[in-house]
Amino acid sequence: GNSVTQMEGPVTLSEEAFLTINCTYTATGYPSLFWYVQYPGEGLQLLLKATKADDKGSNKGFEATYRKETTSFHLEKGSVQVSDSAVYFCALGPPGGYNKLIFGAGTRLAVHP
Amino acid sequence: NAGVTQTPKFQVLKTGQSMTLQCAQDMNHEYMSWYRQDPGMGLRLIHYSVGAGITDQGEVPNGYNVSRSTTEDFPLRLLSAAPSQTSVYFCASSPGREDRDTYGYTFGSGTRLTVV
């Protein structure tokens, strides 16, 4: 079946540090992959996406590359800010299964000045 | 502001009570869905709708009902609340279900429900 595994949090970093949040997936066929972010007290927002192998999604300094060979979609940012503190969800969109997204458990990021 | 509006933001119920979580969107989106968020489990799909009058079950539909009489509204009903339904509930919408990959989903800010 389809599933998403994320690294457990919380991840605690100092401002300007490099961020990596690991995400691996299991899927049949060729899914679409997403990162959503949830700021405190808010709903989820789409951060970036990739719909085919080797695509790189990017937004607000965050990047993730769709790696079919390693079934991964790791989130990276070169220099985090306090305002990046949030919960990050990796998600998988099954091919043709447009009715759903399958989410990972989420990773909480805390950035300190 | 345009978006997905959920009410109430917080609710406490006693076991066996019923209630309706409201969800409304003003973006003329065809596709709407309900998810629940539990610690360590991410979000799981409860029910979804691909247009007015059309609904279907997701991954965890038991104990919940939905209807879609208008494009704008997609209420979620808890028939007889149980402590296992304590969770944070999110409503989401998309222009069309095929737009999941282009636009992603727009989420409401959530309803935190506690059943005692």
Largest sheet of chain A: 6 strands, mixed
Shape of chain B: globular
The Rg value of chain A, from CA coordinates, equals: 13 Å
Question: How much of the residues of chain B is beta strand, in percent?
Answer: over 45%
Mean pLDDT of chain B: 92
Would you list the SSEs of chain B in sequence order as H and E?
EEEEEEEEEHEE
For this structure, the quaternary state is heterodimer
Rg value of chain B: 13 Å
Shape of chain A: globular
Q: Give the H and E element order of chain A.
A: EEEEEEEEEEEE
Fraction of residues in helix of chain B? under 10%
| Estimated share of beta-strand residues of chain A | over 45%
Query: Could you report the average pLDDT of chain A, rounded to the nearest whole number?
Result: 93
Number of helices of chain B: 1
Largest interface: A-B, 22 and 28 residues
> Could you list the spans of chain B in which at least 5 consecutive residues all have pLDDT below 50?
none
By DSSP (H or I, 4+ residues per run), the number of helices of chain A equals 0
Terminal-residue CA separation of chain B: 34 Å
